[in-house]
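Anyone able to model this chain together with 1,3-dihydroxyacetonephosphate?
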Amino acid sequence: MLVNATNMLLKARDGHYGVAQFNINNLEWTKSVLLQCEEMKSPVILGVSEGAGKYMCGFKTVAAMVKAMDESLGITVPVALHLDHGTYEGAKACIEAGFTSIMFDGSHYSIEENIAKTKELVELAHDKGLSIEAEVGSIGGVEDGVVGAGEIADPEECAKITDLGIDFLAAGIGNIHGVYPENWKGLDFEALERIHQATHNIPLVLHGGTGIPDEMIHKAITLGVSKININTECQLVFAAATRAYIEAGKDQQGKGFDPRKLLAPGAEAIRAKCAEKIQLFGSENKA
Ligand code: 13P
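re: yes, here you go
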């Protein structure tokens, strides 16, 4: 059964480990993530960006696919279906579509507007039993064509958003989406500590998980981070494995590629990546 992400993240916070949010883009990715999390008895959050939602024929299609797959594969670990970086309209659409969790990213609005919209969505989400993540201080890099500057969130603003009753908070601490540039200064742990202090121990979310050194991930977990988002790393291994398969020329003697075989190496690569992250974040056997 799909669940919201509140309990799994409170448990992670209290148990000092992180739960992965793996973003999904198609059926194969979803299946790989679910099977690996089940094998390792790890709770998981499936992240769906608005772009990925559109690609997969809309949020209703995604919710139906994930629910059916969770059931058909006999998944027993807690799985949350979560909108990643939702707009105000997207968040409302996911509440209706059967998601179990949403993120409203109002970080590009003024703090007043972010507060007003987050407040309204907290009520709508909680009414239907969904968990809700909000964001303060935009996360850098590019996601779905939206470029964020990589701000450091203001602890007072984080406190104001937290007090609206959200379930977990994404706060910018120098993290960015995608691959980190060579001159990246690293996570700002002083900022994380200030945010953690100001937000009454709410589970914090670390976006841009790709390429953050292991020691920084572990340190972030000690400072209140309970959810870590991974997208680009899965994309990279999926692409590399698919490319290798094609370059090896494993087609059917000029008759083209069997699509199931073509996508199998990528799906396997995603499983291996999930296993690596579950181990790193410490969520194995925490279901
Ligand atoms: P990466 O693409 O850097 O792994 O970040 C994923 C993310 O934060 C999704 O919200």
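The pocket of 1,3-dihydroxyacetonephosphate is lined by residues 23, 47, 84-85, 177-178, 207-210, 229-233 (CB under 6 Å).
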